[in-house]
Amino acid sequence: MYLFDTDILSNIVKRSPSAHLVARLEKTAREMQNSSAINVGEIYYGAMRSAHSEKIIRAFEEKVLSNLTILPFDEGSAKIYGKLKARLEKKGMVKSEPDLRIASVALQHKLILVTGNTQHFDDIPGLEVENWIVG
Fold this sequence. Notes:
By secondary structure, the chain is of the alpha/beta class. It has six helices and five strands.
């Protein structure tokens, strides 16, 4: 089971998406494909900053949202997030808030996080990360 990060979601709607990503998606059953409400928020935020926001949102909703299960950042995720953030801060490690929340959702549901930005999730204990953008 997988949780797709924002860069994966945005890559799908590019004019020329990653061939490796497309191949992996085609081999992965629909019920194994997930993302989080946090990622959806990041996509909408980015789209709304564009002059072509309506076109981007329409493509995202048709090509991406309709093919995923969107998981919430709920109480279980929040508890993992709080513990994770405190543990990382004690080690002097700072991660972005959205990335920590996304990782918490993945950890809660025991999902592999798929991202092209693997360095954003380095050193998060127990989190399995794969890069499907490059082969």
